[in-house]
Design brief:
Layout (H helix, E strand, L loop, with lengths): L1 H8 L35 H15 L4 E4 L12 H5 L29 H15 L7 E9 L9 H10 L2 E6 L21 E9 L7 E6 L5 H10 L8 E2 L22 H4 L19 H13 L15
Parallel strand pairs: 1-2, 3-5
Antiparallel strand pairs: 2-4, 3-4, 5-6
């Protein structure tokens, strides 16, 4: 209905029947029988719909991908062949290209997110699958912004830099996590958001040139106004750090980026004390001493359990 309304507003001759609109599982393996509607018989319109979508995923060259992918953390097992690879075929998972492994493997648990699966699928579909036919393509996503600088996304940034020619990052939430309500472009979204546009123009550059701009208005209306005024050659763009794994954030002024990183100086890190209980820590020493006295004075039952609680 929204597409039809938009077409009418644009006074276009295109009819809804001219568009290929399909209901399908984007992340499902297009080389396997679709399982989305297994309860329906062959020939059912919905079954045929998913088969047509799988044909597009397998065979059709796509040059532009625009999306607002879903965001869900701890989505292990929900990434289809992007996450797990193909059964009986090429077993290498597409997501492996976003992984560095080694010392960074622990951080890469953050890649198990639905929006990351969609990023990897889109990059493959537009930039890689039919590269022999065309070197050109565009992927434009609005998604949560963790991949801009998070340590677990170094491989993702490296892959995009090596695959594309240019990129533009629009930081919609420079305030960080849980930005003030009045500044959110989408009121119910607490996570920082970003628009990222990556382009492959056929040029064989070593790493993509990427630029960054932040919408730093104090209200969403100010941000929308800044966004409307932003163009590809606007003065607001700042060059991003250009090394393969570096964050998609502006290069530092002066010599800051030449200094060693904390992880280089202290390569061994531990998470610290994880007591799994809140009563053993407190912001003041008097409370801690009081709790400790109560604990040490407590008698132990036959089951080995103490009878007092220590949340006060």
């Amino acid at each position: 209905m929204r597409i039809t309304q938009t077409l009418r507003e644009q006074d276009t001759d295109t009819q809804l029947g001219d568009l290929r609109l399909h209901l399908a599982d984007t992340l499902a393996d297009p080389y396997e029988r679709a399982t989305l509607f297994t309860f329906l018989p062959d020939g059912d319109p919905l079954v045929e719909n998913t088969r047509k979508a799988d044909w597009i995923k397998r065979e059709q060259k796509v040059t532009v991908m625009i999306s607002n992918p879903p965001d869900r953390e701890r989505a292990e097992g929900e990434g289809g062949w992007v996450e797990k690879g193909r059964e009986g075929g090429d077993k290498a998972a597409l997501l492996d290209d976003f992984r560095l492994g080694g010392r960074n493997a622990t951080n890469e648990n953050k890649l198990k997110n639905l929006y990351v699966y969609f990023w990897r699928w889109a990059a493959f579909k537009v930039f890689e699958q039919h590269r022999s036919e065309s070197d050109r393509g565009i992927v434009a996503f609005i998604s949560t912004a963790g991949f801009l600088s998070g340590p677990g996304f170094q491989g993702m940034r490296k892959c995009l830099r090596e695959t594309c020619s240019e990129g533009w990052i629009i930081d919609l939430s420079p305030e960080g996590i849980q930005p003030p309500m009045r500044t959110r472009l989408f009121e119910g979204v607490q996570q920082p958001l970003a628009i990222a546009v990556f382009v492959r123009s056929g040029a064989d550059n070593e790493l993509a040139r990427i630029r960054y701009a932040a919408l730093d208005g104090s209200t969403r209306e100010e941000k929308y106004a800044q966004f409307e005024a932003l163009g590809p050659d606007s003065d607001q763009w700042r060059s991003v750090r250009q090394s393969a794994h570096a964050p998609f954030t502006p290069a530092a002024q002066g010599a800051w980026d030449t200094y060693p990183a904390m992880n280089d100086l202290l390569p061994w890190t531990v998470p610290g004390m994880l007591p799994k209980r809140t009563w053993v820590y407190s912001p003041d020493s008097d409370t801690l001493r009081s709790r400790w006295r109560r604990l040490t004075a407590e008698t132990v039952s036959a089951t080995g359990e103490t009878r007092a609680t220590y949340g006060g």
